Amino acid sequence: MKHLGKYIVLSAVFLMTFIGKTEKAFAQDVDYKTYTLFLYNFMKYVEWPTTEGDFVIGVVGESPVKKELEQLAKNKKAKGRQIVVINVANPNDAAMCNMIYIPSSKSAELKPIYEKVKGKSVLIVAEREGLARKGASISFAIDDDDALKFDINKSTLDSQNLKIANMLMQLGILVG
Amino acid sequence: MAQSTVNRKDSIDYYDMSIEQLLSMKAHGVPSELEELINSLILAASKRPLTARESPGIVTLITQEEIRNSGARDLIDVLRLVPGIDFGMDVEGVVGIGTRGLWAHEGKMLVLLDGQEMNELLFGTNQFGNHFPVDQIKKIEVVRGPGSATYGGFAEYGVINIITRTAADIDGVSLAGTYGQMQTTTGRSNFNLSAGKVKKDFEFSLGAFLGSATRSDKNYTDYAGQTYNMAGNSDLNSTLLNLGMSYKGFSVRGIMDLYQTTVRDAYDSSKVTPYPMAFNSYFLELKYSGTLGKQKKLTIVPKLNFKSQSPWQTLPGQDTTSPPYFKDVQRYTGGIMASYNLTRKINFLAGAEAYLDRSQDNIDSSFFKDGKKEVGYSNQAYYFQGLAKTRFVNFVVGARYDMHSNYGSAFVPRLGLTKKIKKFHFKILYSNSFRSPSVENINLSSSIKPELTTVLEFEAGYQITRASILTANIFDISTKSPIVYYDSAGTDNYKNFGAGGSRGIEVEYRIRSKWGYVIANYSYYSVEHKDKIADYEIPGVSSMLLAFPNHKANLNALFKAGKYVGISPSLSFMGERYGYTQLDTAGNSMCEKFKPVVLANLFITVSGFAKGLTIGVGCYDILGSKYAFIQPYKPLYGNHAPLPGPSRELLVKITYDLKAVKKRREKSEE
After folding, report:
1. What pLDDT is attached to residue B85?
2. In this structure, what are the phi and psi dihedrals at residue B112, rounded to the nearest 5 degrees?
């Protein structure tokens, strides 16, 4: 093992040199347009008790998904309803939304938001995998082959008086 | 409609796609050509598909495209471009594999062909040179580290997992013919037919290869100083049939591998007349793979395997100066594996398998030990693997326990930590592995035990741009009580003796884009401060072992020239090597230094200009190097002078894909 340490240091230096020189290099980032496509399908295949007024989507904190949703709102409607995208700065804003999107970086907000909208027809969609088991109605997951998938908590949806179409249900995995 | 198509359309079309199309959407958008490669799923390192960057092994993935573009003649050409992999000379014209400076020929490197263990069971070897047809291959996963915790006793130093094209990949008929002309004789004439059809739940595929080649047309000078030309004295003839069928979860795989060589080099002294040697193998597998439960979390895979082999076969009368060798060996294996996905990110996998080995000596005058004409052994094995993917790191924990009726038990645990964090990924791997003694090891030494190896590996990789990635790894291998061949009064023998190992570094850079690709790698090993086996040592050189260079570098590239033409240069550099060459005037073995050598090749393909036709022309070893396969060990008996490799070889390869004809016709009819 005498020279092993030397190899490790050399490898690290070699790699760090590249990392430093390519800080601005482009790598494959999350494609939030794809996430927005899924959210749009959630709007189409989930049934809310009310069908009047604007369809309000709240994005918790800052996320690139907001820009994509705003682009969507310019071109599409949610079952005939105008789509409005707002920023959810604190959990109290959540109750005015039809759908809440919680980015990965704001996963800690799930619990207070869930408490605020408990029993209300607010579809909570979480970016981080596993949150459908912890109060979100739907949470995203990424398979090993990078395919974007989602988990559904049917119990939560029922408690929110939201009905999900079978077609959408078949695409997701039931976790509750 | 694939994501790549949809994304090019305007936003209104994009959001109007059907709900079913969501299934094909990727979280990170349309991958670049490189990302498709490095994110492709690897099975060999864990029996559960994981991306190359997160798979718990140091893995090289070789694609069908790379093999075709390079014009590779056989598996030697393909594997030589992998970091750390090299080839050496055994005896009787057989070329075997080495890795990371260590001779892995006898039972230390597992070769899987569509899941079938190709290693012959008498000695554990694989024979390279116009063997294992490259035209049938879809991809090769080379695990450059141990795989015993998953695969058992032939995967001590690595796994070469060859996956041929499926029925869906072929979807029709594909024909390939290769002709090679060495400097003074025909290098090879190979023909391959692949056929495949999918009809609802039924799939059928067939690969049929018929090949005839020459190892070399150079002069070989044996240990005693006698010389002959290898043309006509080093034939490598291969017939391989690979049949696969599946219906829903059931599958059947049958392989017939008939490999026949012409031998004149023999052991110390070459023969006056050549003789044939056969390595015949037959494989049959029946397998079922089914999921249970509403959420399909549990997958059960029971399977039965039968393998019958007759390697190193020389029949009475074929070699008039040495005794014939004709032993059959059969292995009957039954196994079951269960894989349970607790969540999307947590998987448990467990399995059990048992096999029976039977071997018969078919020569009237020869016997196994104790005068037996037949011997039999049994083995049972149990393995387990747990995989958890978390936000911080992926954990892989596994172990395998084998209990053999003759040599007892072997227990090999493994632990792996891997993670991809945006552009960066790392792997920290600790593995125990073992080599199980083969039938002849047991026959020749009643006290033989499995040899045990511990390997530490660390890999770091960085995706520099969407088209390029740099990966580097270091490794440390320590083998205890290796099974070593030795001569006892002119008789073959084996014993567990001493210790061995190596350590080193492997670096690879890949860039891949619309213009083509470049794969460049460098590997270095050293045995300085490692225990060494005397038979593998070089007198006066402490950092290197016989046959394998400390430094090795490879380049494999494709440059697309216009719509139809691909230009593919490839190159292997091997630093200085050492090998025993012959006896001096006093009768002592001479160990000589071999100068660094460069094998440079160029292959040009023209495709797409006419109905499924691809024409390739090229030249292997353009520089006319003096490359020779060196024997990596120095026995008292069975010394072998370095065997010359092929001379400069001009190649023509024609591939005709009947599927392409059909598709083109359909397109024109539209």
Report:
1. 98
2. -110, 130
B466-498 per-residue burial string, b: 16 or more CB within 10 A, e: under 16: bbbbbbbbbbbbbbbbbbbbbeeeeebbbbbbb
Total-model pTM: 0.88
d(C-alpha B349, C-alpha B116), whole Å = 20
From the list B585, B482, B639, the residue with the least C-alpha distance to B124 is B482
Fill in the amino acid letter for B245. M
Q: Where are the domains of chain A?
A: 32-174
* Contact between residue B174 and residue B655 where contact means Cβ atoms under 8 Å apart: yes
Q: For residues B602 and B567, what is the distance between their CA atoms, to the nearest angstrom? A: 7
d(CA B652, CA A84): 64
Cα angle B130, B133, B136 (rounded to 5 degrees) comes to 165
Cα angle, residue B462 at apex, residues B457 and B465 outer, rounded to 5°: 155
Query: Which residue stretches of chain B have pLDDT < 70?
Result: 1-12, 489-490, 660-670
Q: What is the pLDDT of residue A93?
A: 87
What residues of A are in contact with residue B12 (Cβ under 8 Å)?
75-76
A28 band by pLDDT with thresholds 50, 70 and 90: low
Residue A23 has pLDDT above 70, yes or no: no
Q: How confident is the model at residue A11 (pLDDT cuts 50, 70, 90)?
A: low
Distance of alpha carbon B448 from alpha carbon B137, whole angstroms: 37
State which amino acid sits at residue B549.
Answer: P
CA pair distance B100, B343, nearest whole angstrom: 37
Contact B463 A28 (CB under 8 A): yes
Q: How far is A98 from chain B (nearest CA, A)?
A: 20
Contact B236, B214 (CB under 8 A): yes
**pLDDT at A60 exceeding the cut of 70:** yes
The letter for the amino acid at B240 is L
Quote the CA–CA distance of B34 and B53 in Å, as a whole number. Answer: 12
Both structure tokens of B272: 């006056």
| 3 state DSSP class of B526 | strand
**B231 and B267 in contact (C-beta within 8 Å)?**
no
Give the pLDDT confidence of B47-92 residue by residue, as tens digits.
888 888 999 999 999 999 999 999 999 999 999 999 999 999 999 9
Cβ of A3 within 8 Å of Cβ of B528? The answer is yes
- pLDDT value of residue B490: 66
- 8 A C-beta contact, residue B580 and residue B546: yes
Ordered by start, the domain boundaries in chain B are 1-30, 31-669
| Chain A contact for B447 (CB, 8 A cutoff) | no
This model of the complex carries an ipTM of: 0.76
**Looking at the partner chain, which of A2, A7, A37 has a beta carbon nearest the beta carbon of B25?**
A37
- Structurally, at CATH architecture level, domain B31-669 sits in Beta Barrel (2.40)
Query: Residue A17 burial by CB count (10 A; 0-12/13-18/19+): exposed, middle or buried?
Result: exposed
* pLDDT at residue A27, rounded to an integer: 46
Answer whether B15 sits within 8 Å of A26, measured CB to CB.
Answer: no
- Which of B11, B22, B462 comes nearest A75 by C-beta? B11
Residue B633: HSE in the Cβ half-sphere, 13 Å Cα cutoff: 25
Could you tell me whether strands A55-60 and A83-88 are parallel, antiparallel, or unpaired per DSSP bridges?
parallel
Per the listing, tokens 């490189």 go with B34
CB count in 10 Å sphere of residue B597? 19
CATH code of A32-174, in short, is: 3.40.50
Considering only CA atoms, which of B94, B127, B136, B139 is closest in space to residue B234? B94
CB-CB contact of B46 with B385 (8 Å): yes
pLDDT category at A14 given cuts 50, 70, 90 is: low
